Amino acid sequence: MCIFLLQGTQILTGSWVAQNALQLWDFGEGLLQETLPFTTAASEEFLYCAQFAENNVVLAGGSGTNSVQAVNIESKEVHSFFQCVL
């Protein structure tokens, strides 16, 4: 599974892979700009969703961490972390 979202000239992808699942791409060049951090205590991310939000923040969530996280695109910091307890 992979999610593609376009904002301006950037594409946000969230992939169902173990590592480097949250990435920004340059639409015009077709090149990877950067991999965004997705905090995990385990070694697996496995994203199901990703979305551009306001103030240079993206939201992403997945089953590898059972969490939803808000990541700032500029600072590369995780601003919020919501853990789902099963």
Please specify the SSE layout and strand pairing:
Layout: E1 2-7, E2 10-15, E3 22-26, E4 31-35, E5 47-52, E6 57-62, E7 67-72, E8 78-83
Antiparallel strand pairs: 1-2, 2-3, 3-4, 5-6, 6-7, 7-8
Notes on the structure:
22% of the residues are buried. The chain has one domain (2-83): Thrombin, subunit H (Beta Barrel). Strand 5 (47-52) and strand 6 form a beta hairpin. The chain is built from no helices and 8 strands. Strands 1-2-3-4 form a 4-stranded antiparallel β-sheet, with no helix packed on it. It has a 4-stranded antiparallel β-sheet with strand order 5-6-7-8, with no helix packed on it. It is an all-beta fold and 86 residues long. Helix content is 0%, strand content 53%.
Helical content band: under 10%
**Tally of individual domains:** 1
The shape is globular
Helix count from the secondary structure assignment? 0
Distance between the termini: 23 Å
What is Rg? 12 Å
The helix/strand order is EEEEEEEE
Mean pLDDT: 87
How many individual β-strands?
8
Low-confidence stretches: none
The appropriate CATH architecture is Beta Barrel
Structural class: mainly beta
CATH class: Mainly Beta
CATH topology: Thrombin, subunit H
Task: Provide the β-strand percentage band.
Answer: over 45%
The biggest beta sheet, please?
A: 4 strands, antiparallel
